[in-house]
């Protein structure tokens, strides 16, 4: 069976057009899409601490502040939400974990404009590393957790993996002179 070149062209053009749009990015330089789509953040004044995001699973809150200093224009910290909070995830140092390279998922990108310097913004990337939580079922199809087994695992240092979070911060744009 011979296919007409015109017919072949009619079927391949829509496919090519669908994949060649301006939104298609190829290559390692393009950032992955974040799991959370976030709208614009209100511009923040210098020397005012503001909450960037809360991560209840890790009992953590990200706080940031524009310092007004040229050498270190923005600082952010991870603060524990409450001493009574029992974390179900761990917050780790992004410099050690290297989340952009080790299979982490980009969870959130927070862009905070500087109210005193509109050309400058802080960009915080929040990364998440999930764990496989496939339930192991017994012969009756039930998931069973035995206290004695879990105690022995804890004593041996063989606890199950828990999800992890990490955050990286950069400052984009030129600083303003006073």
Commentary on this structure:
A hairpin with a 7-residue loop joins strand 2 (60-66) and strand 3. Residues 3-29 have low confidence and may be disordered. The protein has helices at residues 5-19, 94-97, 147-156; strands at 50-55, 60-66, 74-80, 90-91, 105-114, 117-129, 164-172. 16% of the residues lie in helices and 30% in strands. The protein has 178 residues and is of the alpha+beta class. The radius of gyration is 24 Å and the shape is elongated. The chain contains three helices and seven strands; from the N terminus they run H-E-E-E-E-H-E-E-H-E. The strands form two sheets. Strands 4-7-6-5 form a four-stranded mixed beta sheet. Strands 1-2-3 form a three-stranded antiparallel beta sheet, with no helix packed on it.
Shape: elongated
Number of helices: 3
Q: Rg, please?
A: 24 Å
Most strands sheet: 4 strands, mixed
Question: Which strand-content bin applies to the residues?
Answer: 25-35%
Number of strands: 7
Q: Which parts are unreliable, with pLDDT below 50 for 5 consecutive residues or more?
A: 3-29
Report the structural category: alpha+beta
Task: Kindly report the average pLDDT value.
Answer: 79
Q: Ends: how far apart?
A: 76 Å
Helix content: 10-25%
Run of helices and strands:
HEEEEHEEHE
Strand sequence of the main sheet, in spatial order? 4-7-6-5
């Amino acid at each position: 069976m011979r296919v007409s070149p015109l017919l072949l062209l009619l079927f391949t053009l829509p496919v090519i057009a669908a994949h060649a749009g301006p939104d298609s990015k190829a290559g390692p330089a393009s950032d992955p899409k974040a799991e959370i789509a976030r709208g614009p953040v209100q511009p923040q004044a210098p020397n005012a601490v503001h909450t960037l995001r809360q991560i209840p699973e890790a009992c953590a809150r990200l706080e940031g502040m524009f310092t007004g200093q040229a050498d270190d224009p923005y600082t952010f910290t991870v603060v524990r939400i409450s001493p009574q909070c029992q974390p179900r995830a761990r917050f780790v140092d992004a410099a050690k974990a290297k989340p952009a390279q080790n299979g982490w998922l980009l969870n959130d990108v927070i862009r905070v404009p500087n109210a005193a310097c509109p050309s400058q913004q802080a960009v915080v990337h929040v990364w998440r590393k999930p764990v496989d939580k496939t339930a192991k079922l017994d012969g009756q199809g039930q998931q069973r957790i035995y206290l004695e087994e879990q105690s022995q695992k804890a004593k041996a240092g063989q606890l199950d993996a828990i999800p992890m979070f990490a955050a990286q911060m950069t400052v984009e744009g030129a600083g303003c002179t006073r």
